[in-house]
Amino acid sequence: MLGRGVAITYLSLVVLIPLAAVAWASGEGGPGEFWSAVTTPEALSALRLTFGAALAVVAINAAMGTLIAWVLVRDSFRGRGLVNSIIDLPFALPTIVASLTLLVLYGPGSPVGIDVAYSPVAVVVALLFVTLPFVVRAVQPVLMELDTDMEEAAASLGAGRFTIFRRIILPNLAPAIFSGAGLSFARSIGEFGAVVLVTGNIPFETQVASVYIFGRIEGGDIPAAAAVSVVLLAFSLLALVGMNVLQGRWLRHEG
């Protein structure tokens, strides 16, 4: 009982009370003020860009994260340990440093001849960088524990590689892929540091919701910042709850 009380108290102080304070600040002016704050042209533009980029990142991460995990688990090559370590670099690197790195690499005067800075593409690139590990690290342990006997049996019966992947491997990986994708989405819609430099934060073009919120705070409009924050919070919570529900259903089905 004591441990449970300490855990709940800590969770409340660190997470629940601050979130409740933001929700309270967003509703100080009533539902009308809340709706007005989240439906201004600039706010809607920032939200559309944020959710559009997040969905694109989820789709790319689901495919490429699964592929990278597959290569790390099923292929043997020199430098695999180094590549495996690099996957976690976005977790360790300060996001503002990531934004500066991407600006140098993909901005004006790019050493690789690719200039996507200050465009919506830069938003997607920045979010892909910071969310890369989620799907990879979710899928990798599942692949490591996956029994290959069924794959070998299917191959011996004449099944092709694509059929084996679609009918045997993918159903086992699906919960992990959805889990990583859900975390990628939640991280993407709230990311600030990685996009703040490389996107230029141009209203109606490259300004994402987190930067819009920062601008409202600098302008002293706390209720508007809180209102847009609540929208992001709600979608993040829905993504995480949906992810947990799907995982629970898969576990019950397997059981």
TrEMBL record:
<dbReference type="InterPro" id="IPR011865">
    <property type="entry name" value="CysT_permease"/>
</dbReference>
<keyword id="KW-0472">Membrane</keyword>
<feature type="transmembrane region" description="Helical">
    <location>
        <begin position="117"/>
        <end position="136"/>
    </location>
</feature>
<dbReference type="GO" id="GO:0015419">
    <property type="term" value="F:ABC-type sulfate transporter activity"/>
</dbReference>
<keyword id="KW-0812">Transmembrane</keyword>
<protein>
    <recommendedName>
        <fullName>Sulfate transport system permease protein CysT</fullName>
    </recommendedName>
</protein>
<keyword id="KW-1133">Transmembrane helix</keyword>
<dbReference type="Pfam" id="PF00528">
    <property type="entry name" value="BPD_transp_1"/>
</dbReference>
<comment type="subunit">
    <text>The complex is composed of two ATP-binding proteins (CysA), two transmembrane proteins (CysT and CysW) and a solute-binding protein (CysP).</text>
</comment>
<keyword id="KW-0813">Transport</keyword>
<comment type="similarity">
    <text>Belongs to the binding-protein-dependent transport system permease family. CysTW subfamily.</text>
</comment>
<comment type="function">
    <text>Part of the ABC transporter complex CysAWTP (TC 3.A.1.6.1) involved in sulfate/thiosulfate import. Probably responsible for the translocation of the substrate across the membrane.</text>
</comment>
<feature type="transmembrane region" description="Helical">
    <location>
        <begin position="176"/>
        <end position="202"/>
    </location>
</feature>
<dbReference type="InterPro" id="IPR000515">
    <property type="entry name" value="MetI-like"/>
</dbReference>
<comment type="function">
    <text>Part of the ABC transporter complex (TC 3.A.1.6.1) involved in sulfate/thiosulfate import.</text>
</comment>
<dbReference type="InterPro" id="IPR005667">
    <property type="entry name" value="Sulph_transpt2"/>
</dbReference>
<feature type="transmembrane region" description="Helical">
    <location>
        <begin position="222"/>
        <end position="246"/>
    </location>
</feature>
<dbReference type="InterPro" id="IPR035906">
    <property type="entry name" value="MetI-like_sf"/>
</dbReference>
<feature type="transmembrane region" description="Helical">
    <location>
        <begin position="85"/>
        <end position="105"/>
    </location>
</feature>
<keyword id="KW-0764">Sulfate transport</keyword>
<feature type="domain" description="ABC transmembrane type-1">
    <location>
        <begin position="47"/>
        <end position="243"/>
    </location>
</feature>
<dbReference type="GO" id="GO:0005886">
    <property type="term" value="C:plasma membrane"/>
</dbReference>
<feature type="transmembrane region" description="Helical">
    <location>
        <begin position="49"/>
        <end position="73"/>
    </location>
</feature>
